[in-house]
Design a protein that fits this description.
By secondary structure, the protein is an alpha/beta fold. It contains 8 helices and 5 strands.
């Protein structure tokens, strides 16, 4: 059986037995927060449990490395929408130790893409179109560096209020321990003095 058929078969039974009812909530986050975190598989259940989050508590945005790579990209758009349309009052940027974006090697990613059928012509065309794959497929040297950079972009975004707490944390993907890297309350207090 294919993976999609396995999922659809399970889903049919999930809906028929009304197991969805325990997850019913509104689109507004009960804890009025938005979380930007990594897509790492170890965090799917661990991060919400480590933060005492339940369905409906937070808007959760995931990408590779919890990185805001462009101040007007889709990640920032999602944060702006969460703040102004969905009543989020705080932002949490949460990376994790042992992240695959640490020391990401763009040449290795491109070589793997070629192994999966992406031609040299496509790579060359992208380069001639002004897309620098080496820069686009980059991560960070240390997870803390990635978190600090993302927090800084969010905190200084021209469309977000200066009194918006933006926190930076790193989670241990084995134990769930959270280390505070950037205290959003402190940054807000310092900006008002």
């Amino acid at each position: 059986m294919s993976l999609v058929n396995e999922i659809l078969n399970y889903n049919e039974e999930f809906v028929e037995t009304q197991r969805y009812k325990e997850f019913l909530t509104t689109k507004f986050p009960d804890k009025r927060m938005v979380v930007l975190t990594c897509m790492d598989t170890r965090l799917v259940e661990l991060l919400p449990k480590a933060m005492n989050l339940h369905n409906g508590d937070a808007k959760i945005i995931k990408n590779a490395g919890a990185i805001v790579s462009h101040p007007f990209g889709s990640i920032m758009r999602s944060i702006v929408v969460a703040v102004y349309e969905l009543d989020a009052d705080e932002v949490f940027v949460i990376g994790h130790y042992d992240c695959g974006m640490t020391g990401l090697n763009s040449d290795h990613v491109i070589a793997n893409a070629k192994k999966r059928g992406i031609s040299d012509d496509v790579i060359a065309t992208l380069g001639h179109s002004g897309i620098n794959l080496s820069r686009w497929l980059t991560g960070f040297e240390h997870v803390r560096e990635g978190i600090e950079k993302s927090v800084n972009i969010i905190r200084n975004h021209p469309l977000l209020p200066k009194n918006l707490p933006v926190h930076g944390l790193i989670i241990d993907p084995q134990t769930g321990r959270l280390d505070l890297i950037e205290d959003g309350y402190q940054a807000v207090d310092e900006s008002h003095t």
